[in-house]
Amino acid sequence: MSEYETEEQQVEAIKSWWSENGRSVLFGVVLGVAVIGGWRGFAAYKDGRAQDAAGIYGEFVEAAGAADLDKVASLAQQLRDDYSGLTFPVMASLAEAGLLVSEKGDLATAAERLDWALNNASLEEMKTIAALRLARVRLAQGEHQAALSALPESASPAFAGLTAEIRGDIELAMGDQAKARASYEEARTLGGEVVNPAVLDMKIGDLALPESEKEEG
């Protein structure tokens, strides 16, 4: 698989990824993770502050579904400013970042939102999601070392395969095909529901050694 030659191609690539995967992940996985993790925001539902935050988040979801980016930005900022410590502003920041990429190609602001989510999430699963998405955004920005640094040092089994795949994408962009192939192989071994085996096979196949090099080795 060849590297992207221009910044425009990098932006289009990540926009395509978000369009194909972003919304299902944003409102499926993120909400699912929150429920599985106990949804600590709702654990405090008797607290009027949490009830207010839940109402604003409901408005946010409607605005996000309609791709009303101005309202999305306003509601997400309100949640961050007034309801820090709850899960809702983290979820909103993750979703806003996805829309910023898929609808506007605004990688810089998306990175800011993901960084905020990473630093304010209380659930480890959400921290991992934020870290992985931040790594993809940094990769699209051409900030390879920052992308590597954004990857979680240790991911839960559910995200280990995806972490390895993204690491391979970064290594490939840095020109290290051997490391990239090893990371893709690791991702295929670790698997997980969030890894597409067909895409991984394609990436690995693109990095296959020519027969002449195999014989020399």
Characterise the protein shown here.
- The chain is built from twelve helices and no strands.
- It has helices at 7-36, 40-43, 48-65, 69-82, 88-104, 107-120, 124-140, 144-150, 157-173, 177-190, 197-206, 211-216.
**Largest beta sheet, briefly?**
none
Oligomer: single chain
Element string (H = helix, E = strand):
HHHHHHHHHHHH
* Domain module tally: 2
Question: Rg to the nearest angstrom?
Answer: 18 Å
Number of helices: 12
**Coarse morphology:** elongated
Low-confidence stretches: 1-7, 20-39, 41-46, 211-215
Task: Report the portion of residues in β strands.
Answer: under 5%
Tell me the total number of β-strands: 0
Structural class: mainly alpha
Quote the average pLDDT.
81
SSE order and pairing:
Layout: H1 7-36, H2 40-43, H3 48-65, H4 69-82, H5 88-104, H6 107-120, H7 124-140, H8 144-150, H9 157-173, H10 177-190, H11 197-206, H12 211-216
Summarize, please.
This protein is mostly helical.
Please supply descriptive tags for the structure shown above.
disordered N terminus, 217 residues, 2 domains, 0% strand, mainly alpha
